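Hi W.,

Here's what went into the run:
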Amino acid sequence: ARGKREKNSPQTKVVARRLPPTMTEEEFLEAVSPLAEYDYFSFVPADKSLGAHAFSRAYINFKNTDDVFTFRDRFDSYVFVDKKGNEYPAMVEYAPFQKIPKRAGNKKKDIR
Amino acid sequence: PDSGPETTKKERPPMHQYIRKLLYDDLCKSNTEKILRQMRKMHWEDPLVASYIVKCLTAIWNAKFYNIRCIANLVAGLISHHDWVGPAVVDGILEDIRIGLEVNHPKFNQRRVAAVKYLGELYNYRVIESSIIFKVLYLFISFGVVFDPSSYSEYDPPEHLFRLRLVCTLLETCGQFFSSGSSKRRLDCYLCYFQHYYQYKRSLSIWSEEQEFPWQIEHLVRDTIAAVRPKLQMYNNLEEAQKAVTHLNNQIVAKAIEQVPSLRQFLQPD
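Here's what came out:
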């Protein structure tokens, strides 16, 4: 049956939402540094088509479940400030989709 | 519509125009294989091209509604060559569904229906598992929902019936596959909670003789449930639904305690 594997393993993929829309990947990594050991990281810039509701977000898959809670305690509701001084309280949650690519960071070339 | 977003014409680089043309204009049921080959030929090694493709595959509301299924099919095909595309697209769609609940502005309604339809199709093409579908189904009947007529939720105001439409869209898209095994049981449970939400909505005092609960929504809910569970006898009112939910909750608690006896102190104190 589908879904067996995912159900039994603890959740380790976390999403940090509602980050400043102008934030870059480098700025985020700097702000959360030092980051505990992870095997997947993905930063998604804000989707401008949402207008005033556009936010950046980041996905991190931690190697140890303890680090999930440490990161949550540190950054859930943490207020990120953009260059203009606007405040963005972040939300840190389990990513609803826990799957990560098998070869994270090591993308196989498509022989097309 | 007076001035849509089309009035501000965006000048896109030729590569972006080409990707959009393939995905939003050309793609249809009969040429999915061919378009998949074209998409595979893109310069995936260029992070800017790759992220633009993922962005377009996520922004499903740009596609024609009846072609959403083809894009889900295309994504399933791309994953065998670029497996990271799956999580990237699914994460993006789930976020769009979530932010839609938070913002809850009618101007995004079309977009939200498209995103939900896409999620269902991604299940049909086995990009995601049923657990994700159920997470979202429960999100629709719980996020910011307060089953108390005396309190007001800005996320789900009394006259707001759009959540019902979203649930129906998702069930119409992939509910017919929850017909055996654990996913059948999960849908049966869900329909109990969903009917409770529906009956709660109907019971609110804003509906009266003058302003009746919209029959279109009533039909939509009835037709959707009938399509996935033709023999199901629907609850007639809030009391019946409430009774069924209480009964189901008790069953679930009893089962949990049976499996993990130490839970009793938390689930059945005294």
